[in-house]
Amino acid sequence: MTFLLITIVHAQEYVSSNIDLTIPENYKKINTGEELLTSIKLLNLASTGRIDVILQFQITNPSNEIIYTKQETVAIETQANFVRTFKIPKDSEPGKYVLHAKMILPNEREVTTKESFHVENKKQKITQIIAITTTLLILTILLIINSKKHLKNYKLKRRIKRIIKNKITQNKEK
Predict the structure, then answer these.
(1) Model confidence at 47, in pLDDT bands (50, 70, 90)?
(2) Taking Cα atoms as reference points, which of 89, 79, 99 lies closest to residue 37?
(3) Does residue 115 carry a pLDDT above 90?
(4) Distance (Å, rounded) from C-alpha 6 to C-alpha 79?
(5) Is the domain 2-120 a CATH 2.60.40.3880 member?
(6) Is the pLDDT at 73 greater than 90, yes or no?
(7) 117 C-beta neighbours (distance < 10 Å), count
(8) Is the CB of residue 73 less than 8 Å from the CB of residue 53?
(9) Would you call 97 helix, strand, or coil by DSSP?
(10) Distance between CA 49 and CA 41 in Å, rounded?
């Protein structure tokens, strides 16, 4: 959880506003193409009455490139709590991503925060599982084939030993 508080001295009064951005634990790792769920809490401790603030959101990928942007205006009296979802593109690369949030106050002061999360590629995982399963299956088949060869050799050696033993026994009896 990231929490940032900014205090600004303006016209002899203290203006305090903050933004709290939280990504629930079960959304800290998501797959490409899924939605990122966030909880946002805005506080207006400064002015009495309602103010409109601008919220800007950006998501950056592991290469620090912006892959998503969104802007909206939100009204706050003393506090505003809401949930937002952000769609992660299907072609996103796996890795650590960062959700940046900026609140722009009417006096043009800014409060920023960020929260990180990980994106995984479900298709890549499935491909890895298939590759491992196929490898294990091939190894098992090779082991069975090799075991059959060894079993045939063992049976042949036993048979030869029996024949030799029988011949020796027959020669002794003569």
Answers:
(1) low
(2) 99
(3) yes
(4) 15
(5) yes
(6) yes
(7) 18
(8) yes
(9) strand
(10) 17
Domain boundaries of the chain, sorted by first residue = 2-120, 121-174
Question: Number of helices and strands (H, E) in the chain?
Answer: 1, 9
Break the chain down into helix, strand, coil percent, rounded to 5.
Answer: 30, 50, 20
Comparing CA positions, the residue from 106, 101, 92 lying closest to residue 19 is: 101
Q: How far apart are the first and last CA of the chain?
A: 96
Residue identified by tokens 């009455």 is 49
Compute the distance between CA of residue 146 and CA of residue 125 in angstroms, rounded to an integer.
31
3-state secondary structure of 146: helix
- Amino acid identity for residue 60 in this structure: T
Side chain identity at 110, as an amino acid letter? E
Residue type, 124: Q
Q: What is the pLDDT of residue 127?
A: 66
What phi and psi values does residue 154 have, to the nearest 5 degrees?
Answer: -60, -45
Q: Per residue in 76-98, pLDDT tens? A: 888 899 999 999 998 899 999 99
- When pLDDT is cut at 50, 70 and 90, the band that residue 4 belongs to is very low
Question: d(Cα 35, Cα 11) in Å, to the nearest integer?
Answer: 43
Query: DSSP assignment, residue 80?
Result: E
